[in-house]
Write a structure and sequence with these properties.
Blueprint (H helix, E strand, L loop, with lengths): L5 H8 L13 E4 L2 E13 L1 H11 L7 E9 L1 H9 L3 E4 L4 E5 L2 E5 L8 H4 L9 H11 L4 E2 L1 H8 L3 H13 L3 E4 L6 E4 L2 H11 L6 E6 L8 H11 L4 E4 H8 L9 E5 L5 H8 L2 E2 L6 E5 L10 E3 L2 E3 L2 H9 L5 H13 L2
Parallel strand pairs: 2-3, 3-4, 12-14
Antiparallel strand pairs: 1-2, 4-5, 5-6, 7-9, 8-9, 10-13, 10-14, 11-12, 15-16
Length: 337
């Protein structure tokens, strides 16, 4: 390897108990025994880089250990690296190293100002930019022109182009052709899903907790969808309640989350369902965004309107009630990424 940059040496030396004076080669010494290691230095690692780094680490010979050194890492990237057993440390003080005879785990111990963190990224997958990501994920084998994507996602051509161009640079999409004939196809669905989950923001969303009387052993999601459909109210069951419909192996869901059009006040929605707003003991949560963007890809399962599978995954992931475990099962069994 080439000599490490000053920032990388600084990041290593900032870890408790670490010393570094690396030149052309690197090794780690544990109880008098030395082992060669491969160091990969990256300025900033997000979920897209993380997938590429995992692939790189798998190419390293078994006789060597692989350690990533980064100036900054995102929370999503750290999760991916740890799930795949890739050792890392960064300039923020985050460290996860599990090697033979060595275990180091720390959280952030200091803050550094990163030019990469301050920079604004064009084509972020927040709000309507996320609709482009969802369109790609929902039709993973399709090729897309900018115009086709804008029409499918319901966004401007400019936004569609910015998102697609960014994902192409990140090697999430491949491209063919030039100019108006240029089309793109997804090549790394897992990286795109993780990137969208990390960057997604839904501005102005409102949550209303409520209680609705249901029949013992009944299906609350079916009753809710039936009431709202009968009243002509656009809606979609989401989160763990929807995940349980599509992946029945999931455990029971005490709270049903439903996305409802922003055009109707929550009080009127509750009245339609015969429900009442509560502070405690809720079995129903109404989610209303600043617009109806997240209802765009809803679909029916039997007689029940459910959100797009991608939105179901993300809403389940953020549920404090065993959300991550349920979301992971849904990702593996339904999304397949």
């Amino acid at each position: 390897m080439a000599p490490l940059a000053a920032w990388a040496l600084s990041a290593i030396r900032a870890q408790p108990g670490f010393d570094a004076s690396f030149r052309a080669d690197a090794e780690i010494s544990i109880e008098g025994r030395s082992r060669p290691i491969v160091l990969e230095a990256k300025r900033r690692v997000d979920v897209v880089n993380a997938h590429a780094i995992v692939a790189l680490a798998r190419q390293v010979p078994a006789s060597r250990d692989f350690v990533l050194v980064a100036e900054t890492t995102s929370a999503g990237a750290r999760q991916i690296l740890e799930q795949n057993g890739v050792a890392y440390l960064d300039g923020l003080g985050n460290t996860s190293i599990r090697l033979s005879g060595l275990f180091v785990r720390t959280g952030a111990v200091r803050v550094v100002n990163s030019t990469a963190d301050r920079a604004t990224t064009k084509g972020r997958l927040a709000h309507k930019g996320g609709l482009v990501a969802q369109a790609l994920l929902l039709q993973p084998d399709r090729t897309w022109s900018v115009a086709e994507m804008a029409d499918e996602a319901g966004v401007s051509s400019g936004l569609a182009h910015r998102v697609l161009a960014r994902l192409e640079v990140a090697s999430i999409l491949s491209a063919e052709g030039l100019g108006p004939r240029k089309v793109r196809r997804m090549t790394n669905a897992a990286a795109l899903l993780d990137l969208w989950a990390e960057e997604e923001k839904e501005p102005g969303s409102r949550l209303t907790a409520a209680f609705m009387l249901t029949r013992p052993g009944g299906r609350p999601a079916a009753l809710i969808s039936e009431c709202l459909e009968g009243a002509g109210i656009s809606h979609a069951i989401t989160g763990n309640a929807a995940a349980a419909i599509l992946a029945p192996a999931l455990t029971s869901v005490p709270v049903t989350e439903v996305r409802v059009t922003a055009a109707i006040p929550a009080a009127d929605v509750l009245k339609t369902m015969g429900a009442r707003q509560v502070e405690e003991g809720a079995n129903l949560v109404i989610v209303q965004g600043g617009d109806d963007a997240e209802l765009r890809f809803r679909h029916k399962v039997g007689e029940i309107w459910v959100a797009a599978n991608t939105r179901i995954y993300l809403d389940a992931l953020r549920d404090p009630r065993r959300g991550k475990e349920q979301a992971q099962v849904f990702r593996e069994t339904v999304l397949g990424f």
